[in-house]
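Re-run requested by the PI after the first attempt was lost when the workstation crashed. Everything re-entered from the original request form. Ligand of interest: flavin mononucleotide.
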Amino acid sequence: MKTLVIFDSLYGNTEIIARAIAEAITGDVKVLKADDARPLDISDIDLLIIGSPTQGGRHTKSVEALLTEISGTFDKSTKIAVFDTRMPAKWVKIFGFAAGKLADFFKKEGFEPVVPPEPFMVEGAKGPLKEGEQERAAEWGKNIGRMINA
Ligand SMILES: Cc1cc2nc3c(=O)[nH]c(=O)nc-3n(C[C@H](O)[C@H](O)[C@H](O)COP(=O)(O)O)c2cc1C
């Protein structure tokens, strides 16, 4: 199985989550930052996982640029999963979150993500990740890998 994990990260927290997810999935797994990913990287992938920090209630500009570039280019058999990092503060809820917007994008493209959009929590804007989130990310990745391989 070929897996590609794409992430963006300003302060490094989402990168830690992305790498924990990737390490927990067996097979051919590649991790790319959104700015470094090209449509060719996404072709011929069985499982595509995309994650972004939530910034202003959505994914980052780099992730948006990539989504625009890859829109309409997916192989119909590609399995999709999305995640974000976000803060636990109540006020941020009004703006929404990156993972929900990522899921909306894929639904519009005709892909239902294989699991619900997953949040991972940081303690403040620059992090660190809340205790246990890196381990939870590994578990999340492992479960998706198992699900796709089954
Ligand atoms: C410009 C900016 C806007 C942000 N807006 C939100 C937001 O709307 N909701 C939220 O939960 N967190 C928000 N945050 C906190 C980010 O989610 C947090 O910085 C991110 O999860 C850290 O991930 P990273 O280390 O990979 O950049 C914002 C952070 C920045 C820098």
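Saved to the shared folder this time. The longest helix spans residues 133-149.
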